[in-house]
Amino acid sequence: MSLRLKFNLILIAIFLLSLIGAAVYFNGYLEKNAISDVRQNSQVLMATALAIRSYTTDEIKPHLDPMNEKRFLPQTVPAFAATETLRRLRDRFPAYEYKEAVLNPTNLRDRASDWERTLIEKFRADKTQTEATGIQGEGIQRALYVARPITIKDAQCLVCHSVPAAAPASMIQVYGDKNGFGWQLNETVGMQIVKLPMLYPLEKARETFYSFMGSLLTIFALMFVALNVVLSGLVIEPMARINKKLEELATKDFLTDLVNRRRFFEQLESAMAASRVNKTGLSVAIFDLDLFKRINDTFGHDSGDVVLKNTALRVRELLRSSDCAARIGGEEFIILLSETRIDAAMAIAEAVRGKIANVPFERVGTVSASFGVAEWDMKEDARTLINRADRALYVAKETGRNRVVRADAAV
Q1: Could you tell me if 348 and 340 are in contact, meaning their C-beta atoms sit under 8 angstroms apart?
Q2: pLDDT value at position 98?
Q3: Quick one: pLDDT at residue 205?
Q4: Where are the alpha helices (DSSP H) in 232-323?
């Protein structure tokens, strides 16, 4: 696995974990804020209803009450005024709701539903509870409610709600004498309730969430690209160059720039495997510069190094890209000839021998080389093959040098 891939996988994993954590936290945070906003708006709506009731009681009712003897005016009733005023608010905000739900109302439109009746009974059972909040409904009908008990604290309320005989005749004419009576002082008869929809605030929170997550993804994408560019420029490419250099140092002969013994054996094993599969020939040619010690002793080691370098250059000029040449000793070289039978290998070895012997080296003059060539028999291992070629080289040395000897002729 490459360094870039490892880095990107780690970066993506870190980002995904961070993204999941941010998504969970931010989604919860936005939903909590949305609910908080709705709750605050519901409190404002409830305060508005109370203000309307108070204004009706203080400013409207005293002026209109005398008229109730002739014709009942529901506008004098604080609950009616608050309900009607806030009902008009629904023309602009349809999902906003205010109701004064009563167990036994005078106006039947205020009768409590089953759900509202359950909440009223909780207020009746616990006189210390002054407010209840919660979420009611499912899906798009989901709404946050705030409810407060309606408890008879003022005896004046009982004028209209104790018994029909005590109520204004004009009210009886409008609403009849069957509903809204029998109330008691300090009795909880109903509740004020406001409902605000959760859909719109939650949709807004969701839009904000998507926008936030989109911005995070965009930022990550830009960071991902930028970090990969920086990684390539400052880490991967310099490391690749260093690795290449180290690979060359580990696998090449520093003087001749040919591969070293270790890399040659790797190449040979690979070529033998390919040759076995493809049923093609494979040969090696090992050669040694004749009387090389005299060159060092006569002209010095620097001149000897020049001969070795130039020998390597002459060998490379005659080899194919599929062949491989290596320096395996002081003045000893070996050539891997892929897909080459013994006759062709002998011809190539002869060409290399001639290239070395026929062109004099600077200062040193003519230098010859002796060759041993062997073809792989598809059974032996690499060392056995090289040993056969080496024995052929020994024969070439013993029989006059500057010649090429095939292994089968040397046995």
Answers
A1: yes
A2: 84
A3: 82
A4: 237-251, 261-278, 292-299, 301-318
- Which 3 state secondary structure label does DSSP give 261? helix
Nearest to 160 by CA among 61, 59, 51: 61
Q: How far apart are CA 290 and CA 311, in angstroms?
A: 12
Amino acid identity of residue 155, one-letter, is A
Give the separation between CA 178 and CA 176, rounded to whole angstroms.
Answer: 6
Which amino acid, one-letter code, is at 263?
Answer: R
Report helix, strand or coil for 1: coil
Q: What are phi and psi of 200, to 5 degrees?
A: -65, -50
What gap in Å lies between CA 194 and CA 313, rounded to an integer? 96
- Which pair of structure tokens corresponds to residue 81? 């005024």
Tokens of 271: 């070529």
Q: What is the pLDDT of residue 63?
A: 66
Give pLDDT, residue 67.
57
Structure confidence at residue 400 (pLDDT) = 92
Is the pTM higher than 0.70? Answer: no
Give the pLDDT score at 411: 45
Phi-psi region of 365 (alpha: psi -120 to 50; beta: other; left: phi over 0): left
Q: How far is CA 85 from the centre of its chain?
A: 53
Specify whether the CB–CB gap between 101 and 191 falls below 8 A: yes
Render the burial of 60-94: b for 16+ CB within 10 Å, e for the rest. bbeeeeeebeeebbbebbbbbbbbebbeeeeeeee
Low-confidence residues in the chain, pLDDT < 70: 1, 63-71, 246-250, 409-411
Q: 337: closest CA among 264, 390, 243?
A: 264
pLDDT of residue 341: 94
Residues 6+ apart with CB under 8 A from 136: 115, 142, 143, 144, 145, 195
With b for 16 or more beta-carbon neighbours within 10 A and e for fewer, the 254-266 pattern comes to eebebbbeebbbe
pLDDT at 38: 77
Residues in the chain: 411
Question: For residue 138, what are the CA distances in angstroms to 54, 112, 305?
Answer: 34, 20, 91
Instruction: Give the long-range contacts of residues 270-276, CB within 8 A, separation 24 or more.
Output: 271/324, 271/336, 271/338, 272/376, 272/382, 274/338, 275/338, 275/339, 275/376, 275/378, 276/378
pLDDT at 124: 92
The residue behind tokens 């290449």 is 244
Rounded Cα distance between 286 and 391, Å, is: 10
